[in-house]
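Quick look at the format.
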Amino acid sequence: MTQPTIYIETSVISYLTARLSNDLVIAGHQKLTSDWWEQRRVDFELYTSQLVTQEARRGDSQAAENRWQILQHLPLLPITKEIFELADDFMQKRILPVQAHTDALHIAVAIFHDIDYLLTWNCRHIANAEIHRQIAKLSFQQGYGEMPILCTPYELMGGKLCGLTTL
């Protein structure tokens, strides 16, 4: 049996490698990301794309190097003409705003390559439940199969919620 596949988006790598934030919410996301990476990544086949490596090279040179140390071990999914066309369709149908074109490309990469999960902390334009149905509908109309689950590391902890317990 093959493992489920995950497309790792830039925000996950950024949270994994960044200095601990003073913002409690971001620090929590960083901790969850680290826990997911240590505990759960082995349960999946991880992929990324040239888009992620390009985004990860921006900013502080030491931070970019830290991101690269993680990314260099992940296979890159090719970005095709069809991926650009699908992302453009998301923009033309106003599913995503014009400024989110790169986010649309991340989603299109995962859809085109039939990835099971797109892992992100971008809850504005990617892991956003309000746009999932629209993205799924349009990608199905374009002839693509099942929609990847767009989610955060928290949602893929597999019941290992970092010390949290339920009643």
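Next, a different chain entirely:
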Amino acid sequence: MANLNRCYVTWSGLAGLPGVSVFYGVAGGDPTGSLTAWFTAMQSVFPAGLSWTIPGSGDTIEDTTGDLVGGWSGAGGATVAASGSAAHASGCGAYVNWGTAAIINDRRLRGRTFLAPLMNSAYDNAGTIVTGNLTTLQNAANTLVGTADIAVWHRPTTSGGSDGHGEVITSAQIPDQVTSLRTRRR
């Protein structure tokens, strides 16, 4: 891969927010449609009041160095509103592990996106995620993988380095365990 389209998705509308999730799209593509579909597919598991803003444009970076090389513009951004019950625990939720086919320094390149907060009813009595909600999240992630236009980026390991690498996601796994977030920073 050579260039990646960086897309900052803003989480807003609840206490402790705004927050940001960073996604990388394949250069020449438009990640807004895939990301809008992904957030829409899982909106019922998140508390009402939460919304995600997917921008219609952003920066293009060169994946080996991380240098800014231009910008991208898509068909248009979108805002997706969560539709679950309003009760939630701030910062508590799930996460998705993104898999790729790349091996870097004897390790498989992976990414992770935190999905927090989930609505209170997303959890069962054992403190894990209700099976139906886990299925909703997993199916949405599988659909995003199927678009083949979202990538994981491995940053260069040294300042001014050139060993960065971008790779399209090939798998997604959402473990049946709860995680927590302290901050989301840009």
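The CA atoms of residues 13 and 50 lie 5 Å apart.

See the schema section for token definitions.
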